[in-house]
From TrEMBL:
It comes from Streptomyces jeddahensis. Residues 153-189 are annotated as: Disordered. Residues 155-165 have a biased composition (Basic and acidic residues). This is VanZ like family protein. Keywords: Membrane, Transmembrane, Transmembrane helix.
Length: 189
């Protein structure tokens, strides 16, 4: 049993579902961000923080909302899926947030570094920032409330008895000792 889960089977199912969803999401992100694009020209890499966001804001509110929203939403599911795969209910909220945001930032950095070798894709430090903020926002919005709800559910369900699945312990009838004369007789030649 793990950290307050009422049933080990439930914990396994939640972690397994989280793992499957995490792999599916990462495959989708890889396909969206690392496939070569056939474009007539490619702009230079953006290595100046917030320069791309300012350029997006200059395009107008709808275009800016779309581009900034895409950056926030790309890795946001990791904010929920990573703690789900971890499967712990009783952890420090700040520690969980820090681990999840660090993992999201490292994954985003890895994607940006891989994009340097993909035709048509450009490196953008603002994507790294927006992806990381998206992971943090999703984590803060969902994970603490979900953990509280799951802890309450685990407290309401009665704890299984230790012997509920095993039954009674089998007893062995005592065998009496052989009389002393029999034991001595067997050892003599």
């Amino acid at each position: 049993m793990r950290q307050g889960w009422g049933d080990g089977n439930v914990a396994f199912r939640v972690r397994a579902a989280g793992g499957v969803l995490l792999v599916a999401h990462l495959l989708l992100v890889g396909w969206l961000t690392l496939r070569p694009l056939d474009v007539p020209w490619v702009s230079a890499a953006n290595l100046h923080p917030f320069a791309g966001i300012r350029a997006d804001l200059a395009l107008g509110p709808l275009q800016a909302a779309r581009r900034i929203g895409e950056g926030l939403l790309l890795l946001a599911p990791l904010g929920v899926l990573l703690p789900m795969v971890g499967g712990k209910l009783s952890v420090s909220p700040l520690g969980s947030l820090a681990r999840t945001v660090a993992a999201g930032a490292l994954l985003s950095l890895g994607i940006e570094l891989l994009q340097t070798g993909v035709p048509g894709q450009i490196v953008d430090v603002d994507s790294l920032l927006l992806n990381t903020v998206g992971v943090a926002l999703a984590h803060v919005a969902v994970v603490p409330a979900a953990r509280v709800r799951l802890r309450r559910r685990a407290e309401r369900t009665p704890a299984p008895r230790e012997d509920a699945h095993q039954g009674t312990t089998p007893t062995i009838t005592r065998v009496g000792l052989a009389p002393q004369s029999d034991a001595l007789r067997a050892s003599r030649p």
